[in-house]
Amino acid sequence: MNYYYDGYPRRRSIFFTLLLCVISAVIGGLLAVSLVPVVYGPGEGNIGTQSLNEGSSAPSLPPSSLDYAPVVTIAETVGPTVVGVSNQGMGRSLFRQQLVEQGSGSGVIISKEGHIVTNYHVIDKADKVVVTLADGRQLEAVIRGSDPETDLAVLQIDADNFPVSALGDSDEVRVGEMVVAIGNPLGAEFARSVTVGVISAKDREITIEDRKYNLIQTDAAINPGNSGGALVNSQGRVIGINSAKLVIQGVEGMGFAIPISDAKPIIDELIEKGYVSRPSLGIWGYVIDARLAAQNSVPQGIYISEPIAGGPAAAAGLREGDIITGVNETKIENFDDLREVLAQFKPGDQINVSYYRQGKEASVALVLGERSNE
């Protein structure tokens, strides 16, 4: 006698049950096979394997094809080109003065001549700079040149048998692209640490100690000591020099790097000259902001407190008390405005300077001089 539950037979013949299982298994298998190209795409039916070559008996994917392999390759090839940089200065011990470490950072070897790029703030005020290579060698480095305005510096070591980084094109990077940061967070103990992230944004304008920088933003971890290290793309090319991290309570994953395409001409000039040549008006002055302008019934601009003797401004007839209000029809209200417009020119170029003097507006042609970091 058959028993029923809610109108359905509760027990059936064992033959029909087994037959139903076999049919279900066959149909399910065929359906699964037919869906593989839809879900995974052509040629991707075996996850974690590759097509078998003739005679092959080990269907395994080569390491270079695994998701983590690009990072491993980058760490193995670019990692050894990242060095430790120790900023040493004279300090007084109990009985005498001696060199002590004032700070540390990272650097990247960029040429067979031993040139190393790092941040200016890593070597600022150093009496001696010591570089530690990946093979453990510690070498005194010569500071070939430094540029506070871009926070870049170039060192040089006298050595051989060291690896060199390949430089990329940061203008070509895309938001969301994978990047790897390599450096020495917290010093030699964590040398050549590797962190992975993406390009979070390009052309971020960041102000650090009253200087504006256009930087690459990344969420790859950048910590104290990473400064001067390499930001590397998936092709293993350096596309940035790690420079800063936003430190605000509750905020994580906001690091910044100097784009290598912006850094290249600075690096070349530091190697060639030891400093970066920039145009100059040849003045000392201060900013007349909106408040001061309203109080004194004068326009906003840069007040000339002293034209440098023999400089471009003095030669053009500008004098103490003049207020610079424009350059080549561009309005000037502060030194950031002035730096931005002068960056379009080089020493020896002629510009027109608008200025305010004793209630009157005027302009004068001026030949730019040279301002250096020396």
Low-confidence stretches: 1-13, 35-68
Write the CATH architecture name of the largest domain: Beta Barrel
How many separate domains make up the residues? 4
| CATH third-level topology of the largest domain | Thrombin, subunit H
The backbone outline, from C-alpha atoms, is: elongated
Secondary structure: helix percent: 10-25%
For the biggest sheet, the summary is:
6 strands, antiparallel, barrel
Biggest sheet: strand arrangement? 3-4-5-8-7-6
Give the DSSP E fraction (strand runs of 2 or more residues): 35-45%
Any idea what the radius of gyration is? 32 Å
The succession of helices and strands, N to C, reads EEHHEEEHEEEEEEEEEHEEHEHEEHEEE
What is the β-strand count? 22
Description:
By secondary structure, the chain is of the alpha+beta class. It folds into 4 domains: 4-40; 76-156, Beta Barrel (Thrombin, subunit H); 170-273, Trypsin-like serine proteases (Thrombin, subunit H); 278-371, Pdz3 Domain (Roll). It is 20% helix and 38% strand. It is built from 7 helices and 22 strands. The strands form 5 sheets. A 6-stranded antiparallel beta barrel has the order 3-4-5-8-7-6. It has a 6-stranded antiparallel barrel with strand order 9-10-11-14-13-12. Strands 16, 17, 18, 19, 20 and 21 form a 6-stranded antiparallel sheet that branches. The radius of gyration is 32 Å and the shape is elongated.
Q: What keywords describe this structure?
A:
4 domains; 6-stranded antiparallel β-barrel; Thrombin, subunit H; alpha+beta; 6-stranded antiparallel barrel; elongated; 374 residues
